[in-house]
Amino acid sequence: MNEPGIRVSRRRFLARAAAVGAAVLPGARRALAQPTPTISYWNGLTGADGKVMDELIEQFTRDTGIRVEQQRIPWADLYAKLQVSVPAGEGPDLALIHTIEVPHFANDGVLQPIDDATASGNGFRGDEYLPSTWQGGVYQGKRYAIPLDVPQHILYMNVSVMRAGGLVGADGKPKVPASRDELLAMAKQIARGDTFGFAIGTVNPGKYTWGFQNLLWQNGANVFTADFKRSALTEPSAVEVAEFFGAIHAQHKIAPPANASCRDAFIAGKLGLWIAGSWNFTGLRDAKVDFAVAPVPRLFKQPTVWTMPHQYTFPKPKAPDPAKREAAWRHIRWMSDHVAEWTLRAGQVSARRQAHSDPRITGDPVLKTLLAQAPNWQGGQPTPRWVPAENLTRPVIETVYIGQKPARAAMEDLARQINALPE
Amino acid sequence: MSTHTPRRPRRGALTPYLFLAPGLLLFSVFRLYPLLDGLRLSFTNARLGRAEYGWVGLANYERLLEDTRFHTSLWNTAFYTAASTLPILAIPLVLAVALNRGVVLRTFLRSAFFFPFTLSVVTVGLTWLWLLDPIVGPFNYYLRGLGLPVRSWLADPYTAMWAIILTTVWWVAGYYLVIYLAGLQDIPPELYEAAALDGASGWRSFWSITLPLLRPVLLFVFVTHIIGSFQIFGQVFVLTQGGPGDATRTVVQHLYETAFQNFFHFGSASAMAWVLFGLIVMFSLIQFRLLRGHTEY
Predict the structure, then answer these.
(1) Which among A86, A106, A91 is positioned nearest to A384, based on CA atoms?
(2) pLDDT (tens digit, 9 = 90+) per residue, A135-161?
(3) Range with the lowest mean pLDDT among A113-117, A330-334, B222-226?
(4) What pLDDT is stored for residue A127 in this prediction?
(5) DSSP state of B67
(6) Contact criterion met (CB below 8 Å) for A347 and A380
(7) Above 90 in pLDDT, residue A206?
(8) Out of A256, A261, A388, whose CB is closest to B262?
(9) Same domain, B24 and B105
(10) Looking at the complex, does the CB of residue A265 fall below 8 Å from at least one CB of chain B?
(11) Domain range for residue B23?
């Protein structure tokens, strides 16, 4: 049967059989693990930032030999997928998530804690980071995440729209509102026909919880009480914010309809003042919109700026794989060292301080404004009930926005729903 | 002989099951098992991703009795079903009768009307989302151009559900149109000829010949539409996510949010699914009764 040309010696046969066996048996596979493994990495960077991430990862692979298999899934689906796959042992080696997702994933055992020795052993120290971002990776005294960048709000001003409203000075710079009354007056001056004076939110401003949270924080209010036990949305300071939220469209007619795409309206020259995410500005530049930026104006008691840092996390693996974990750490390390590139091309300022003095970043008017907001940054409350509460908030604030429900009644209803959420 | 006879029928009896086996296996794994497991979960406090959960008896069903948003979603689903039925039955019928008469460009029009149905619900939803956009959408642009009042159709609690119905009619009309056309072509032309000889008008022929002879087809469309309506989700999910407020929240939207967004409550979402299943079974039985009484196949 054997052809005379391919004679296999017994020793060679045994060696080959052992190699095949090693590849098949999981225990033996580890022994043969290559020095540069492939890691799986899930993130929700579905916008233009995803392309930048691809390019940086290619560069990372060239530098280190470590291959990264990315899965890019819209954020909401990514979180559902993590919740399902990690307990089944099918999660990725590395996942990028929003800070407010850390508490509930940590609480459900989806994420693996990172001890301080491991973090510092890999070169990550708290004093290198802006405190709020570093603290965002901690839940109940344990660290679960390493921050990457700080998506946040900023005020965009459409120069041509504001010029039409007589709000651009002789120096060509648009006037920046300094208070709520001033903002309302300016927005009224701009709004006519299908052009709107002011909006907060990228799409669907009626249910833009992140904007609502920003306003709450500016007024010293919040979703939960300080001990996270109950909702604080019935406090007068929260109701006052809800009243403002319910007036801008339904009463003052300065803000676009609840389901409008504010971004499209801004690009189309139909929106003047716009508080929205920092992730929009690279797109506005690509669309050649004539715009200027300013820090989020103080509309209530304090000039708080909403932020939502992205965090690197390690979903709990079925069995520990030190080589893959090491490779994942190297990727975080590499990205943190190259985070200036990420900031410049994806438009998100870094959580790590070092890149903040990069002249290319300090020379960019938008990035400079984003960094200057740092003292006013605030994030969501670290409770596992934050995300479900946010889901409940969306339809309720929409009824307020369209003027269907009075602010106080809506907040009472919402607080009742939030209080009924299971622990 | 006597030794052979018992073997033959046994082999013969097995054969159809062997042919059915692959289908039955897939049906059991992907349909029956999830269905029954859903029933089991509906009596537990199961949460996706949590290993341990306990038996809670009928608590999930009891909670549904108090869940006002579930009641709203039931009402919205009923409203959608009732309000969409007439346009879904009538509009394709009018088009089918017109196309059956030999209009110019008949074949082209038939394809054109059917085309939307070949699109996925997400494509349809995104297209209409853009068409109905309150600021940059063409719909409002032309209304404004004609000097007519505009509103944000999908963000207004009085118009949002109607906008979803409009989208659905545009999407599925072509499918029902093709079914009606098949039914119309089954009506013997002699009947119309005889009616014409007797001096019947077109309208009279429609009422006395077309409509009665089309009844089986109408009932089929009616039943499939009602069952589909109870499960409406895609259009709502893409166009309004149940909003504004809860104005277009339907049962499946609420179920989806309970299962996949708010704490992954599989137990209570499964209970909703079974309530919906019960309702669909109930309505289907009523309709099958109607069908049985009046239709000959």
Answers:
(1) A106
(2) 999 999 999 999 999 999 999 999 999
(3) B222-226
(4) 92
(5) -
(6) no
(7) yes
(8) A388
(9) no
(10) yes
(11) 1-41
| Residues 87-146 (A) with a CB less than 8 A from some CB of B | 87, 108, 110
CATH, residue B83: 1.10.3720.10
Closest-CA residue of chain A to B134? A260
pLDDT means per 10 residues in chain B (297 residues)? 51 85 94 93 85 87 90 95 93 91 82 93 94 88 89 90 95 94 90 89 88 88 89 93 91 90 84 93 83 55
Rounded CA separation A33/A25 (Å): 12
B22, B115: one domain: no
Is B257 a member of any domain? Answer: yes
Contact B245 A396 (CB under 8 A): yes
Determine which helix (DSSP H) or strand (DSSP E) holds A143, and give its type and residue range.
Answer: strand A142-143
Confidence check: pLDDT of A1 > 50: no
Residue B46 lies in a domain: no
Confidence band of A12 (pLDDT split at 50, 70, 90): low
- Measured CA to CA, the distance from residue A212 to residue B64 in angstroms comes to 29
Q: A-chain residues within 8 Å CB-CB of B240?
A: 259
Query: Which residues lie across from A311 on neighbouring strands?
Result: A97, A147
Nearest chain A Cα distance for residue B9, angstroms: 46
* A326, B163, B171 from B118: Cα distances, Å: 48, 20, 9
Residues B192 and B277 in one domain: yes
Do B223 and B97 belong together in one domain? yes
B207 and B284 in a single domain? The answer is: yes
Judged by CB atoms closer than 8 Å, whether chains meet at B249 and A395 is answered as: yes
Q: What is the pTM of this model?
A: 0.83
Partner-chain contact B263 A207, CB within 8 Å: no
Kindly state whether residues B131 and B252 are assigned to the same domain.
yes
Query: Which amino acid type is present at position A416?
Result: R
Number of domains making up chain B: 2
Dist. CA A391–CA A404, nearest whole Å: 19
What are the chain B neighbours of A289 within 8 Å (beta carbons)?
none
B224 inside domain: yes
A162 touches chain B (CB under 8 A): no
Query: What value, to the nearest 5°, has the Cα angle with vertex A403 and ends A397 and A407?
Result: 55
Q: Do A270 and B135 touch (CB under 8 A)?
A: yes
Average pLDDT, chain A: 90
Short-list A193, A250, A188, A295, CA closest to A407: A250
Asked if the C-beta of A74 comes within 8 angstroms of chain B's C-beta atoms, the answer is no
Q: pLDDT band for position A88 (50/70/90)?
A: confident
Please give the interface size between A and B, counted as residue pairs whose CB atoms are below 8 Å apart: 97
Pairing relationship of beta strands A291-294 and A377-378 according to DSSP bridges: unpaired
Q: Are residues B29 and B123 in the same domain?
A: no
Complex ipTM: 0.77
Could you tell me if residue B205 is inside a domain?
A: yes
Contacts of A402 in chain B (CB under 8 A): 155-157, 244-245
Q: Same domain, yes or no, for B1 and B130?
A: no
Is pLDDT of A28 > 70?
Answer: no
Q: What is the per-residue pLDDT for A84?
A: 86
